[in-house]
């Protein structure tokens, strides 16, 4: 009888604790969760999946005591000298850099498909007087720089990138492979990449923006920044915030495992005047107008990050992940009109390019067909430039989700589909 009573008492106490946590977390995250539900149009399976994922992230990230649990596990992993974290979520190299993992990355048989699809897009853009540019940011894993213990599956997409760049060049598609630019004499490896973040550093993103601007000038015969007042080194205040960076990878492993690092920001001296229009999943619009620090840059973020950062300082530039957003330079309405298919690598790049452009219209590169039919969007508008940038670790069929049928027909006409493969594809179609 006493045993049963103890069980009942324990169950009541446990239920009470769980109830308190539920109330606490509902109070903390309720507003954000309501906003996610209100901002979601439940019109397809994809939108429902996205809403569920967003709700899970809101609950997990805002869970009371979450940081304490992460840091406790983080400290234990560090004490035991683990080079892999949380069942190979990440691996740590000998220099202390975190890397994504991949257990197998063989030849992608659809690389030719990607080239044909992009070639068709290029032709459509050029028919209306525009130019297309394909961009690959640099990979954190670099042969000669990255050293990991034998058997640790650090993701290395270098061969896939090389294959992609070669075939795109063969098809006369303009490409910039930033693996060929970084690291360099001005920016060595440890200044190109964060130990705790998968993306390039802010100085590397700025250098990339300058290279893209130069490509635009050459391809269109224009001068975008003749005196360097928009993109030159002296156009920015360079400020380093010691220990304020714990990137998206580091936030998952915890500070105790990987440590924080310095964050160098480039603050534009000319604040300009901009409009930032972002679309929610349900089609509602959010518009912010003001200078660059009121619209595109959260300058106060690095200063607000505490001893245990709960957000990556990388989010300082173009904070928020909107599937579709439009930046308008209100001081340059007649400037270049640019359309981007991009991801988070290009958040700071978009900010740096905004002063030399008129409009930067962008959508998430791996979700373009869940937002619009990108073919119609491009063909019904006129852009000076169409830029497609993709995560070097995310080269896949879903990322090139456009002109599928047209590419299939062209490949068939050119005899690029083997007979047995054609039969397989007809079954799928």
The helix-strand sequence is HHHEEEHEHEHHEHHEEEHHEEHEHHEHH
Number of domains: 2
Tell me the distance between the termini: 67 Å
Number of strands: 13
Poorly predicted spans: 422-429
C-alpha-based Rg, rounded: 24 Å
Please, what is the oligomeric state? Answer: single chain
Instruction: Supply the number of helical segments.
Output: 16
Q: Percent range for helical residues?
A: 40-55%
Strand content: 15-25%
Shape: globular
Tell me what you see in this structure.
The chain has helices at 2-38, 45-61, 66-79, 111-127, 158-170, 189-192, 202-220, 248-253, 255-258, 292-295, 301-304, 347-353, 368-371, 374-379, 404-413, 419-428; strands at residues 84-85, 90-92, 98-100, 131-136, 175-177, 236-245, 261-268, 274-279, 285-290, 324-329, 337-342, 359-364, 385-389. The chain is an alpha/beta fold. It has two domains: 2-64, no CATH class; 91-413, no CATH class. Strand 8 and strand 9 (285-290) form a beta hairpin. Helix 1 (2-38) packs across helix 2, helix 4 packs across helix 5 and helix 4 packs across helix 15 (404-413).
Give the secondary structure arrangement, pairings included.
Layout (H helix, E strand, L loop, with lengths): L1 H37 L6 H17 L4 H14 L4 E2 L4 E3 L5 E3 L10 H17 L3 E6 L21 H13 L4 E3 L11 H4 L9 H19 L15 E10 L2 H6 L1 H4 L2 E8 L5 E6 L5 E6 L1 H4 L5 H4 L19 E6 L7 E6 L4 H7 L5 E6 L3 H4 L2 H6 L5 E5 L14 H10 L5 H10 L1
Parallel strand pairs: 4-5, 4-13, 11-12, 11-13
Antiparallel strand pairs: 1-2, 2-3, 6-7, 8-9, 8-10, 10-12
From the structure above, extract its key features.
alpha/beta, 429 residues, disordered C terminus, three-stranded antiparallel beta sheet
């Amino acid at each position: 009888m006493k045993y049963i009573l103890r069980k009942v008492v324990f169950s009541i106490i446990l239920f009470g604790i769980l109830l308190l946590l539920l109330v606490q977390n509902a109070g903390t995250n309720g507003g954000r969760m309501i906003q996610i539900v209100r901002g979601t149009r439940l019109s397809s399976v994809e939108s429902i999946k996205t809403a569920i994922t967003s709700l899970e992230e809101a609950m997990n990230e805002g869970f009371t005591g979450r940081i304490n649990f992460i840091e406790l596990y983080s400290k234990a992993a560090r004490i035991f000298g683990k080079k892999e974290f949380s069942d190979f979520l990440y691996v740590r190299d000998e220099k202390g850099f975190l890397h994504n993992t991949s257990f197998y990355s063989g030849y992608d048989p659809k690389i030719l498909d990607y080239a044909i699809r992009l070639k068709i897009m290029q032709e459509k853009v050029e028919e209306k007087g525009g130019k297309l540019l394909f961009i690959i940011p640099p990979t954190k894993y670099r042969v000669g720089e990255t050293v990991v213990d034998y058997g640790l599956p650090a993701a290395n997409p270098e061969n896939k990138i090389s294959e992609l760049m070669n075939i795109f060049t063969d098809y006369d598609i303009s490409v910039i492979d930033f693996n060929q630019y970084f690291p360099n004499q001005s920016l060595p490896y440890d200044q190109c990449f964060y130990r705790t973040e998968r993306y390039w550093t802010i100085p590397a993103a700025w250098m990339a923006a300058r290279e893209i601007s130069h490509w635009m000038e050459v391809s269109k015969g224009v001068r975008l920044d003749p005196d360097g007042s928009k993109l030159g080194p002296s156009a920015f205040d360079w400020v380093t915030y010691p220990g304020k960076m714990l990137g998206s990878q580091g936030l998952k492993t915890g500070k105790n495992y990987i440590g924080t690092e310095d964050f160098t920001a480039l603050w534009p001296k000319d604040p300009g005047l901009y409009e930032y229009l972002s679309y929610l999943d349900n089609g509602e619009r959010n518009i912010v107008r003001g200078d660059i620090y009121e619209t595109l840059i959260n300058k106060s973020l690095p200063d607000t990050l505490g001893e245990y950062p709960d957000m990556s300082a990388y989010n300082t530039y173009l904070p928020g992940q909107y599937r579709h957003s439009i930046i308008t330079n209100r001081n340059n309405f007649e400037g270049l009109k640019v359309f981007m298919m991009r991801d988070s690598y290009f958040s700071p790049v978009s900010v740096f390019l905004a002063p030399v452009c008129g409009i930067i219209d962008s959508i998430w590169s791996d979700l373009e067909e869940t937002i619009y039919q990108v073919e119609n969007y491009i063909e019904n508008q006129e852009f000076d430039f169409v830029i497609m940038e993709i995560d070097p670790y995310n080269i896949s069929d879903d990322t090139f989700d456009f002109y599928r049928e047209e590419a299939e027909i062209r490949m068939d006409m050119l005899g690029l589909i083997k007979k047995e493969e054609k039969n397989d594809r007809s079954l799928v179609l």
